[in-house]
Amino acid sequence: MRIGILGLGRIGAFHTATLAGLDAVESLVVTDPVAAAADAAVERFGATAVDSPEAVLAAGVDGIVVAAATDAHPALILAAVEAGIPVFCEKPVARTVEESVAVLRAVQDSGVEVHIGYNRRFDAGCMAARKAVVSGELGKLHTVRSTTLDPAPPPAAYVAVSGGIFRDCAVHDFDIVRWVTGREVTEVYAAGGNRGAEYIAEAGDVDTASAILTLDDGTLALVSNSRHNARGYDVRLELHGMRDSIAVGLEDKLPLRSVEPGATFPAGTPHDFFMDRFAPAYRAELTAFTEVVAGRATSPCTVADAIEASWIAEACALSLAERRVVRVEEVRRG
């Protein structure tokens, strides 16, 4: 199949390399405002470079990957859908949840598949955890813990437009909690603080945050996030049930240091970047998208799925601002 790629920044270039290595992908058509980025894709992967998203859509592609700036996501998704081309778009769907709802309304009856990029759904550990929940081997869940700790904060320019730690970072935790448990979040209580980079506080955001989520069956989910984790990139998920408890991310590259006498675990070099931690998941995610393009599968993460995680983020942002419990229905609009 022939895949078009819109945007060749850090994640777009990474996706281009991944797609070039998939057996199902025969050729790539790419575009980026920076000519050097497109030229690099031509040189490394034999891609065809064109000068606009419109030219990619007109190049006979079977599927589209949107890795452009967030502001461009809605228009690019809608253009692909209007052309009848299945589209994969990195999260978020749009800068605001209201814009995302507008995209959902525009595409939900189109018959064209839209796959939003929440890569943890394709992580082997997270998939095993979901299987354990579905099979019932854990028994009734009572506690879930989801953690995302970045080794260093993003640049000030990114923080200023990110929407805050709940909307751009914790949203991955919110999505994976929903997906693994199969439950919905009904209410949240969030707290946060600033322990590092001053520009994060100046942007009205926090650099460290926690949220308690109450799921619709009474299970409690505890989400922890920080922009400062000097030891590395730490993503973990724990599920505690009445019969058993399991963990995702408990392996030798876990960025924690044990101070127990004689302990040698973890012994590996810590993960230091999300592309390192989730490289296999990204490959599995784009492989799944090729199945969607081929018509053998439906979207494994729809626009509606992405919006549900965004509502939780909105509730957490309000809870943090007003220091109170917020029901998700309180922020849900549209």
Automatic annotation (TrEMBL):
It comes from the Bacteria. InterPro entries: Gfo/Idh/MocA-like_OxRdtase_N, GFO_IDH_MocA-like_dom, NAD(P)-bd_dom_sf. The keyword Oxidoreductase applies. Keywords: Oxidoreductase. GO terms for molecular function: nucleotide binding; oxidoreductase activity. The keyword DNA-binding does not apply. Residues 128-246 form the GFO/IDH/MocA-like oxidoreductase domain. Residues 1-118 form the Gfo/Idh/MocA-like oxidoreductase N-terminal domain. Belongs to the Gfo/Idh/MocA family. PANTHER family: BINDING ROSSMANN FOLD OXIDOREDUCTASE, PUTATIVE (AFU_ORTHOLOGUE AFUA_2G10240)-RELATED, NAD(P)-BINDING ROSSMANN-FOLD SUPERFAMILY PROTEIN-RELATED. This is Dehydrogenase.
